[in-house]
Amino acid sequence: MSSESDRSDEPRESATGSRASPLRVFINYRRDDTAGDARALYNELAARYGGESVFLDVVTLQPGTKWLAEIKSRGSSSGAFIALIGPRWMEIMSDRGHARVVAPAEDYVKVEIEDALRRGSGVTVFPVLIDDAEVPTTAKLPRSLAPLAAIEIVRLRHTRWDDDVEHLIEQIDNVGRTPAPEPPSTKPPRKRMPEPPGEPDQVAPRPDWSHYDDVLRHVVNQGTVVPILGSGVNAGDRDEGWEDGSGALPDAEELAANLARRFSVPSGPDDLARVSQHVYVTEGRPDLYKALRKILGDDGPPSSVHRFFAQLPAKLEERGVHKRYQLIVTTNYDNALERAFDEAQEPFDLAVYLASGEHKGKFLHMPFDGEPHPIMSPNDFAGLPIDDDFDLERTVIVKIHGAVDNAHGPYPWRENYVITEDHYIDYLSRSPVQSLIPVQILGKVRESHCLFLGYTMRDWNLRVFLKRIWGGQALDAKSWAIERSPDVLEKDLWRDFGVDLFAVPLAEYMEELDEHLMARDKE
Fold first, then answer.
1. Are 473 and 453 in contact (CB under 8 A)?
2. Same fold, 5-173 and 209-249+298-522
3. Which tens digit of pLDDT belongs to each residue from 451-510?
4. What is the mean pLDDT of residues 288-309?
5. The CATH number of the domain covering residues in 5-173
6. What does the alpha-carbon distance between residue 98 and residue 93 come to, in Å, rounded to a whole number?
7. Could you please report the per-residue DSSP string of 353-422?
8. Could you give the 3-state DSSP secondary structure of residue 169?
């Protein structure tokens, strides 16, 4: 078709003028949807790039995932991945997803697209729509395929086949000519503002090198650290004077103060549970949740805490260190942590406590690569990516007190908050704890070292968490808490739970932890 087909075996010139690897093209399709189109497209592309450089399963003998791995080994900008989407593409994927429950079988078409979309895959993905087919919306796609909806499409119409194929080839030819984009910065540019004058806090020590080494040893070598995030992680960057902290989501005290102003709550401590209870009783449920939607609905930027854990698996992989994934527990309602993982292109499963609705009192499991489902039997559920030794196959984010409204997707929810005093009492009264928290999550937390970030002992949700998991007893494994300016009471309370307390601004702590991680890799 192209006059350049006789040069298909020659190495291409790169954008910098150096010789580049031959372009490889992968055709992904569903046989019950676009088999004929896939074969016709293969013939066109094989004529342009050479048959050995174009993958189609019925022609190329080796498995598709192995072929993708070969492309990845060649480096970035070395391959084009064509996802052919016909009119039945989504229907077939949905049917196969449901069939896996009854008769487990891998959806290899979906797996190939997931591999292609994954960070560092080495391929550029082209959603190629046949005739009037449409890419499903993000809300209808599994989270593992959600990036597909944001990529510019190419359409192949049977009435304009030659012209459309020529346009597609032009797009493929651009792969490798355009320099690969710079990877996202692992550390957002920040400038530390001057510290206010004053004596350093003497109630608790600052962490020294041995503390960071201790934490990272358990993170990297054993994968036995569970970060437990409180509301202070949202405002940590801003409160400590980092210039990129503007626009941060409110912490618990700020949220309580906001509600108190809106509803003229009598003065008193800015305790979120107390203020929320007052609004719920005096104004009613609709007013409280409407205010929460307005306050928490804004997408504030992820904090340095969120970004550190979202980027950790990639940092370990880039340095040849065995990848470790975390179980991350958060009592926050916002989705800043999830956005940090999405920005880092890092897969994760989500487990959200349902404080309202048909399955109130249960957790909802939202797999990265599947459809969400409530966990009806927590004490024997084994569907999370956590093995019998409590090692994780990918990150799991656990939102133990609900989450901000989710109006989209196959399992939407509203008014899903454990926030008032009555909510916490109800949460505490459910027993035993195995009937509330899935056994895989409970086991992982109890068998790990906990790193408490963004908490103070004044927080209701922290006291509830400690009571539910350990019954108010000391933690089984050595654990740590980080606070900026703890007082003597804070230190005594943490000590009673067997937790070592350190005094340091949270943003500064995360930067130090990151620097120690980088230095550790060089050892």
1. no
2. yes
3. 999 988 777 778 788 888 888 788 989 999 999 888 888 888 899 899 999 999 999 999
4. 87
5. 3.40.50.10140
6. 9
7. E--SSTTTTSEEEE-TTS--EEES-GGG---SSB-TTS-BSSEEEEETTB-S-B-SSSS-B-S-B--SHH
8. helix
- State the pLDDT confidence band at 18, using cuts at 50, 70 and 90: very low
Contacts of 360 (CB under 8 A, 6+ apart): 354
Q: Tell me how crowded residue 137 is: count the other CB atoms within 10 A of its CB.
A: 12
DSSP H helices, 51-194, are 64-73, 89-102, 108-117, 161-173
The amino acid present at 21, given as its one-letter code, is: S
Provide DSSP, 67-81: HHHHHHHT-TT-EEE
**Which amino acid is located at 297 in the chain?**
G
Class of domain 209-249+298-522: alpha beta
State how far the alpha carbon of 108 is from the alpha carbons of 96, 113, 211, 238, 396, in Å: 10, 9, 45, 45, 24
Q: 514 near 494, Cβ under 8 Å?
A: no
Alpha carbon distance 118, 101 (integer Å): 25
Q: What is the token pair recorded at 215?
A: 């934490």
pLDDT at 11: 44
Q: Where are the domains of the chain?
A: 5-173, 209-249+298-522, 250-297
Q: Which two tokens stand for residue 337?
A: 């942590």
Instruction: Provide, rounded to the nearest whole percent, the portion of the chain with pLDDT above 90.
Output: 46
Alpha-carbon span 482 to 488, nearest angstrom: 14
Q: Which residue has the tokens 């896996």?
A: 100
d(CA 305, CA 510): 6
